[in-house]
Amino acid sequence: xxxxxxxxxxxxxxxxxxxxxxxxxxxxxxxxxxxxxxxxxxxxxxxxxxxxxxxxxxxxxxxxxxxxxxxxxxxxxxxxxxxxxxxxxxxxxxxxxxxxxxxxxxxxxxxxxxxxxxxxxxxxxxxxxxxxxxxxxxxxxxxxxxx
Length: 147
Prior knowledge:
Blueprint: H1 7-17, H2 32-38, H3 52-66, H4 81-90, H5 92-100, E1 104-109, E2 112-117, E3 125-126, H6 130-142
Antiparallel strand pairs: 1-2, 2-3
């Protein structure tokens, strides 16, 4: 049998065929993700079983999170506080709005200070610097798990 014709792989290929999936062979030594996913429990302590849809979603999500496109020259995750703080320091409007409007505040998250929008009776929302917006849209459009 070839790499793509074991019974197990054929079953998965039939299931995934309707989605137009392309399969790429990886040797066992380089395919540690599949090994980790094969150890995902198939039931929860409360007795609820995972459905096939749950398992497929977990695989797609894991693939999307592990194969991220680069966000910028630092290649950090875009919502890493250090990245937001870096862009916040370059955003003059965001720096000025804290002093001019009462619903924007500086708030510490660990060692980073970010600007938040605080609407009454709601959790503070971290303000994304303007320079990050188009990059964020492209980033989240390009990662495989954005759907």
